[in-house]
Amino acid sequence: MRRHIKLVYVAMFFSAAAQGQAPSAEVRKFIQHDQPLIALTHVRVIDGTGAPAQEDRTVVLRDGRIEAVTDARTAPPKGAHVIDLTGRSVIPGLVGMHNHLMYVESINRDEDGKTPPPGVFVTEIAFSAPRLYLAAGVTTMRTTGSVEPYTDLNIRRQIDEFKIPGPHIDVTGPYLEGKDTFFPQMAVLTETDHARKTVDFWAGEGATSFKAYMKISRPVLGAAIEQAHKHGLKVTGHLCAVDYRQAAALGIDNLEHGPVFTDTEFVANRNPDECPASGAVAASWEQREIDSPEVRALIADLVARKVAITSTLPVFEAFVPTRPLLSRKQMALMSPEALRSHLEARALATTVPGYAARQEALLKKEMAFELAFVRAGGLLIAGPDPTGNGGTLPGFGDQREVQLLVEAGFTPLEAIRIATLNGAQYMGRADSIGSIAPGKHADLVVLKGDPTRRIADIENVEIVFKDGYGYDPAKLNASVRGMVGIR
């Protein structure tokens, strides 16, 4: 039963391509290259495996797949549409593993600077987000929690049917949350039977993964994991009431963000199945070094149980007010209210003594943990989490994640692998996406420059190939100017 469902789950991503469905007029607005046979010549190939770059190569694309990677001195196939990419690099399409079709439009605060009841709200941006992801080179993504699951499912279907542009989407079901949530858009689950029924229902509706949230209890989380696994689906978690070691013992597949901001196991005198007071988690990690025996033991346990960690460094960088502001290009894409809200939150943070230095230190510690986790054999995957204080945009955050991984100590080749092939491996789809090799889907990103020497070149996206169609990133971005946060 599990194998059958998993095969259906994998097949869903390429239903349109398999049926030979043609792009709609709306999608064609953004396509630069749609020839069935394309040769990318004189290009630097960074294949996503971590292997050294291959200089002066030709990549042949036929009918939506990679047919061959050859020396550029080999003549392209007869009849091929030839694109000379001298001075360019090609990498696999990014696999975004903590991405959303929602955003923070406005951080609602009262006169005391606090968030009043009923809590924090986010806005679905199902029009702008898919275009921004694709423009940045994200060809596959996981929503990693949904506030409008039916919207996300319908967007996935319309993308798969070539009615609208966007990446292939693994739709995570609605958040599995516990009592006293500060997100009223989330499901509240306090009984194991309710958790099982929720997982069953959304698996039946087409969700292809699940995400547990901060207030969920151990019994409820355990029931959700067990039920999801019966459907052949995986569960990730941004946890708090349940710590990392407890979740790993319950069989969770993935943990979001890394532990410095989310793992509560080192908080003193905490109550079982309760999320500690705000700030307690970070304070507990400030007292520990990454090479300490207890942290090494945590890493060893996660690696042994094959629990993946999702790096989401951009969302934490956005909370460091001394880090660079968003670029003018990104600001122009945001709605006025979304931009105002983010800048206000950033300015408010600068008034708190010592806040910037503390956040910077925590960010560096999280980077150190992720490096140690990978060096110990752990599977690190990547995504930007475009929520937080509104300073992490879809797509742009995915590019920034790769740069921050390099800042963390990974080589550019390692960082690119984490953002591509590692995600494909976690999803069980490394045979079709995540690296550049004959037979795989033609999901590729053409970059001006060489990100192995200058990782900032990851931002210089000139063409994005998805299923063999070459999209124009500039046109995709221009189509959503001023919309991020509202549409």
TrEMBL record:
Q: Which residues form a coiled coil?
A: none
Matching Pfam families, A to Z? Amidohydro_1 (PF01979)
Gene3D superfamilies membership: Amidohydrolase, Urease, subunit C, domain 1
Alphabetic keyword roster: Hydrolase
Q: Which positions fall inside the Amidohydrolase-related domain? A: 402-468
Q: What domain of life is recorded for the organism? A: Bacteria
Could you cite one Gene Ontology molecular function of this protein?
A: hydrolase activity, acting on carbon-nitrogen (but not peptide) bonds
Classification via InterPro entries: Amidohydro-rel, Metal-dep_hydrolase_composite, Metal_Hydrolase, Metallo-dep_Hydrolase
- Protein name in the entry: Amidohydrolase family protein
Q: Which organism is it from?
A: Duganella radicis
